[in-house]
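sorry for the late reply, my laptop died twice this morning and i had to redo everyting from scratch. anyway the thing you sent over, i finally got around to it. pasting the sequence first so we're on the same page, its 504 residues, then the predicted structure underneath. double check i copied it right bc i was rushing
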Amino acid sequence: MIRFNGFHLTRLTQGVAALVLAVTMAGIWVADADAQRRNRQSDEEREQNAEDRVFTAAIGEIVLEAQNLQSEEQFAQSITTLNRALSRSGINQYERAISLQLRGRAQYELENVQGAISDWEASIATGALLTEEIVGLRINIGQLYITEGQYTEGINTLEAAVRDGGPDVMNSRLAKMLAQAYAQAERYEGGLRWAETFWELHPVNERTRGDYSLMLFYYQQLDNIPRQMEIVEAMVARWPDEKRNWTSYTSLLAQTEREEDAFEANKIMYINGMLTESAEIVRLAQYYSFYEYPYRGASILERELNAGRVERNQSNLNLLSNMWRQAREWERAVPVLRQLAQLTNSGDDYVKLAEALYQENQLAEAETAFEQALNRGGINRPGNVWTLLGTVRYELGRRQSAIAAFTEGARFPYSRTTANGWATFIREEINAEQQRVVIRRRIARDECGFTVTDLVNGARLFGDVDENGNVFIEVPERCQEFFNSRGEPINQVAAAAGEDGDNG
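ok and here's the structure:
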């Protein structure tokens, strides 16, 4: 039995076989077996069946011989035999129709597709066949046209079979055949009705992956996102372990602005081990970052980088460092940022490293990183970097160096106000400290003055004076810088104390 795309080509000749085997030498009329079994024929067809569907003994013998040759797979000899019948001058239309059907089958078996199509179309053209027989032939002819890439001819022939056969001929296989033909012809709008007819007629429990793919293909070509979603969701539910279904699902979710659902779907895929490509894992990490879960995303990305499943390149290191910074995990950000800065030698990457070091209170290293950033140049807003450097130096207690950095920052309009504010603050702080030193020395000297005066008066009271009337007292250590042992002020100006080294 020969199968073609789900249909049996031997159905074309079942009636013929029954007919030929019953032919007698007397040339009696033999009814078509299929016609006798079916009640769907019209009255006119029944009448035609009785009057015209007869074989003569001579033609019957030839056709029987050809049938036997085909059963023995001697198709070329069968064609030669049938040519004898077809060349007979007295052959009637019914005999011609059956002979052409048989010859067409032999042509098909010999891979002469165009010959098969020509014979079967000629068989229909005799006008001797019943509607059911014509429909069956057209379905097979349509299939052959499609295999030959003659999609329009195939579609027209199959649709003619549908029109002739009515609702009884339509089934899911025929609808699918038409849908596939339209798809191959890239006539998607016209083929959609056949695809949807197939989908409705085909039982859910019998639908294959190819069936789902056919429907998805149509909706993709027609940009019907809602129907695509229906098909893909059904595929995910039916084959939950298949990555490609999930990939299509997440893509559709993103297209329909259901990004958060796409994020959840990606998480499920990762948990189930479906995300194996570097780009897929990076995309998942980006989702975590976007939805304010940077710690989880950074943890996944760092683990996959260490495992070698994600490429350790500039882009991925930058993403990882940004997520650690977003999570305010400065300690974990620092080694990544250091590696990134060394890899790129970029001023901006050294700035990020310096900021993380500053957050970790590694001030000396932060100062070095800021200086490296400025030395490399190419920084987006260098005035801000000078200001940050000034802040670090100030916290290190190097106020004059800090003022120098803030002075550089003040050269840029966007950072001028902040930098000048800091520089002014530090100068006022230094001045205030110097003033406090002067005041403290003045208070100390005044207090010592009272103390020394009391000591001198006491000595005079008790007669502790020399022959010249001079008094000698024991000046307290704290006052010795202001008064000598005779109670006389030391002629020194109490200068304000300045900072040592870089502190002033």
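The longest strand covers residues 3-4.
thats about all i looked at so far, will dig more tmrw
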